[in-house]
Amino acid sequence: MVKIRDIELGEFPLLLAPMEDVSDPPFRALCKKHGADLMYTEFISSEGLIRDAAKSVQKLDIYEYERPVGIQIFGYDIESMRQSAQIIEKTNPDIIDINYGCPVKKVVCKGAGSGILQDIPKMVRMTAEIVKATNLPVTVKTRLGWDDNTKFILDTAERLQDVGIEAISIHGRTRKQMYKGEADWSLIGDVKNNPRMKIPVFGNGDIDTPEKAVEYKNRYGIDGIMIGRASIGYPWIFNEIKHFMNTGTHMESPSVADRVQAAMDHLQMSVNWKGEALGIAEMKRHYSNYFKGIAHMKEYRMKLVTSFELSEIMEILAFIQENEANFEFA
User: Fold this and answer.
1) DSSP letter, residue 163
2) Model confidence over 105-121: pLDDT tens digits?
3) What are phi and psi of 221, to 5 degrees?
4) Residue 296: φ, ψ to 5°
């Protein structure tokens, strides 16, 4: 049984990665329904929380059905990060996660996200202060290093464990790689198999099939897998991996009607949470993922992204669902 403090996650948990503009409550609800064992929010700016910025505060929304759920924060100032951990604790998540992995330039240039990988001593000091500031378990999401010459993750993971983190998720790329090339899991395996490491070690990067999940589980011995991009528009991946691990066989893939229903549910939850205008606008990025690989969808996808009326969009989706025989997988 993999545990983060007293939170039981199962024998080999599958985690939903925190993804900006993706892993909001509506998307998390779908991933939970389809088998995610632990989910994290979009990353939240520590400076935004302290200023009480509306966008940052809204990201604190979590719901009972999501549990266990972690709230992820990022920032460059140690005192701001410490204060934001205290603010977050009042919203009662199960976990606080620190983002040391985001490679986006506007985050990195301030020394936040994976930018802190250029200053490991500061990373350790910041982590220690956050751990001291909260009674909640603290976890970390990070990368192998800043570039190929600074893959210090083996030592870094030990030092973070020593100051009190209770799990670590490692993306198998450097910051310099962004999301290019293949993720290198060999160093993730080295961290897990380091006899000094006592906390759960989760691997992240490029897991997009049940076969790959089983292969990496067996090859690297990690405690669980964190899945990000492969879940966008395809929340079924969590249960598909679990089914394959348990049986060695594949679940039946979601039908066109299943995909449409997921998109409808996602849209309705987005509208309920964000309001109609914003819910519709932000849902547009998801349709191409839900309907990836389906023939004869181009015309309808165009209608979905150009309509601004909820009833009209629902009618388009219902039409596709009712006529799924005309929409086949390419």
Assistant:
1) T
2) 878 767 788 889 999 99
3) 70, 15
4) 65, 25
| Separation of CA 320 from chain center | 29
Task: Return the H-helix or E-strand segment holding 86.
Answer: helix 78-89
So where are the chain's domains?
Answer: 3-247, 256-326
Identify the CA nearest to 226 among candidates 171, 189, 303.
Answer: 171
The secondary element (H helix, E strand) that includes residue 32 is helix 25-33
Tokens of 283: 């849902």
Residue recorded with tokens 């990665």 = 17
Helices (H) and strands (E) in the chain, counts: 14, 10
- Give tens-digit pLDDT for 165-208: 999 999 999 888 888 888 899 999 999 999 999 999 999 999 99
CA–chain centroid gap for 226, Å, is 7
**Structure token pair of residue 297:** 């969808």
- Give the integer Cα–Cα distance in Å for 189 and 202: 10
Pairing of strands 3-4, 7-8: antiparallel
What does the block give as tokens for 117?
Answer: 């990988």
Specify the 3-state DSSP secondary structure of 22.
coil
* Pairwise CA distance, residues 219 & 111, whole Å: 34
CB 89 within 8 A of CB 136: yes
Q: Taking the model in full, what pTM does it have? A: 0.93
Q: Find out if CATH 2.60.40 is the number for domain 256-326.
A: no
pLDDT digits (tens, 9 = 90+) for 211-270: 999 999 999 999 999 999 999 999 999 999 999 999 999 999 999 999 999 999 999 999
* Number of Cβ within a 10 Å radius of residue 143: 26
Distance CA 123, CA 155 (A): 12
- Give catalytic residues, as residue numbers: 102
Q: Tokens 């090859």 label which residue?
A: 219
Q: How far apart are CA 32 and CA 45, in angstroms?
A: 24
CATH 3.30.365.10 fits 3-247, yes or no: no
At which residue do the structure tokens 């893959």 appear? 151
Question: Quick check: do 3-247 and 256-326 share a fold?
Answer: no
Cα(198)–Cα(2) distance, integer angstroms = 11
